């Protein structure tokens, strides 16, 4: 019994001695503990591709949606009454100034004309006789004046019927397209009755609404680019800026005159206008180069002369096919184009001048793999 206790006690002392001996074991002969990792374990610098960008002057634009209106549009009306005797103009076809659109029946207008001509001749002879008698002293001046008044009334009556007859022919007031004819042969029209609608589409007028905060940037005579809903493009000139804002929308009406030879573009459609507002110095970059900092700001990562990563918040002033124009960067800057997602502001990197994608893939394989880069970045994040 006592022998078993002695064996257990001896084993316990042996285990305790072995554990205590491990606490004081050193990795060197002089008894100093070394915590320095081998030289080969030093992390390699992250390799990134950079390109030097130069700022350029770019024309800023305001994009505004609008409507395309004809230069002129008029509804031609009858100036005398009567029945439509002849239709000349055809809907949808071009007409020229002074082209006959329709003709009205004369009815009794020719009879009235002959009566007015006969009455004028009679009044003219009566006035001549009164003047001759007055010269001889046989006619009072009052009678001469009355015959003269009668003569003038007859002349006015003749002119009235002649005008009425001329109004039986309805003419186009200007060159354009006969958009709609409102009458057919046999229709009766009264004075001011609608005959036809004519539209002049050359030039077109694009009307847009400009916000009040931007109206001071718009100048009369400036050119503007127009994209029509039909897919056609045009360029016009700003020829009107409203002097008063719309009370409901606080926007200003701006009209842009766009040449439209041969009426290739119809009116009544929608369009988008790019209205210039002046130049600004900016960089043209790919949207893929934009990133967010810890504060949630949109910006671009660059590398300074010491190969230290810097983050510049930027403002996008306008977008175009293939990229965006941004402000906020130095005029000359080295932008990180490959690897910006694996480095942070303030980090020293290995900057590789811009090359093709195959060149950068070799650099990454030689210095650090993407998985290793992700692991390194994860270790550095709080």
Itemize the secondary structure elements and their pairings.
Elements lengths: L1 H22 L22 E9 L1 E22 L4 E6 L6 E2 L4 E5 L4 H28 L4 H26 L2 E3 L4 E6 L6 E2 L4 E18 L11 E6 L4 E9 L9 E8 L11 E16 L4 E3 L5 E6 L5 E5 L1 E6 L2 E5 L4 E7 L10 E5 L3 H11 L2 H11 L2
Parallel strand pairs: 1-20
Antiparallel strand pairs: 1-19, 2-9, 2-13, 3-5, 3-8, 4-7, 5-6, 7-9, 9-12, 10-11, 10-13, 11-12, 13-18, 14-15, 15-16, 17-18
Helix pairs in contact: 2-3
Tags for this entry?
3 domains, alpha+beta, disordered C terminus, 6-stranded antiparallel barrel, Elongation Factor Tu (Ef-tu), domain 3, conserved putative lor/sdh protein from methanococcus maripaludis s2 fold, 4-stranded antiparallel β-sheet, 5 helices, 382 residues
Q: What does this 3D model show about the protein?
A:
The chain has helices spanning 2-23, 109-136, 141-166, 357-367, 370-380; strands at residues 46-54, 56-77, 82-87, 94-95, 100-104, 169-171, 176-181, 188-189, 194-211, 223-228, 233-241, 251-258, 270-285, 290-292, 298-303, 309-313, 315-320, 323-327, 332-338, 349-353. The chain is an alpha+beta fold. The protein folds into three domains: 46-59 and 281-380, Beta Barrel (conserved putative lor/sdh protein from methanococcus maripaludis s2 fold), CATH 2.40.420; 63-70 and 200-278, Elongation Factor Tu (Ef-tu), domain 3 (Beta Barrel); 79-195, no CATH class. The strands form four sheets. Strands 2-9-12-11-10-13 form a six-stranded antiparallel β-barrel. It has a four-stranded antiparallel β-sheet with strand order 6-5-3-8, with no helix packed on it. Strands 19-1-20 form a three-stranded mixed β-sheet, covered by helices on one side. Strand 17 (315-320) and strand 18 form a beta hairpin. Helix 2 runs antiparallel to helix 3. The longest helix is centred in the N-terminal third of the chain and has 28 residues, at 109-136. The radius of gyration is 47 Å and the shape is rod-shaped. The two termini are 61 Å apart.
């Amino acid at each position: 019994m006592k022998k078993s206790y002695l064996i257990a006690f001896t084993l316990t002392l042996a285990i305790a001695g072995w554990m205590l001996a491990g606490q004081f074991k050193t990795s060197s002969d002089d008894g100093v503990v070394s915590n320095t990792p081998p030289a080969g374990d030093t992390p390699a610098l992250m390799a990134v591709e950079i390109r030097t960008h130069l700022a350029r002057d770019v024309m800023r634009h305001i994009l505004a949606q609008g409507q395309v209106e004809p230069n002129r549009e008029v509804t031609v009306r009858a100036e005398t009454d009567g029945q439509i005797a002849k239709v000349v103009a055809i809907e949808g076809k071009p007409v020229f100034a002074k082209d006959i659109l329709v003709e009205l029946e004369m009815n009794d207008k020719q009879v009235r004309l002959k009566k007015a001509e006969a009455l004028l001749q009679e009044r003219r002879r009566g006035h001549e006789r009164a003047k001759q008698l007055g010269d001889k002293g046989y006619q009072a001046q009052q009678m001469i004046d009355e015959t003269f008044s009668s003569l003038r009334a007859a002349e006015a009556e003749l002119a009235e019927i002649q005008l009425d007859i001329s109004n039986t022919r309805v003419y186009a007031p200007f060159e354009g397209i006969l958009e709609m004819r409102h009458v057919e042969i046999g229709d009766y029209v009264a004075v001011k009755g609608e005959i036809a609608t004519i539209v002049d589409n050359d030039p077109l007028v694009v009307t847009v609404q400009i916000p009040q905060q931007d109206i001071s940037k718009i100048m009369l005579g400036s050119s503007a680019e127009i994209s029509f809903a039909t897919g056609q493009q045009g360029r016009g000139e700003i020829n009107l800026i409203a002097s008063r804002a719309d009370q409901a929308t606080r926007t200003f009406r701006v009209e842009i005159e766009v040449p439209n030879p041969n009426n290739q573009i119809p009116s009544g459609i929608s369009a988008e206008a790019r209205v210039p507002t002046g130049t600004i110095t900016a960089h043209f970059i790919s949207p893929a180069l934009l990133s967010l900092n810890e504060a949630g700001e949109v910006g671009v990562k660059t590398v300074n002369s010491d190969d230290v990563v810097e983050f510049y918040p930027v403002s996008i002033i306008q977008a175009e096919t293939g990229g965006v124009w941004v402000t906020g960067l130095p005029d000359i800057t080295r932008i990180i184009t490959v690897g910006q997602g694996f480095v942070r502001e303030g980090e020293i990197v290995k900057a590789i001048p811009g090359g093709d994608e195959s060149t950068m893939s070799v650099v990454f394989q030689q210095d650090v793999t993407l998985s290793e880069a992700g692991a390194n970045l994860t270790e550095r994040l709080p």
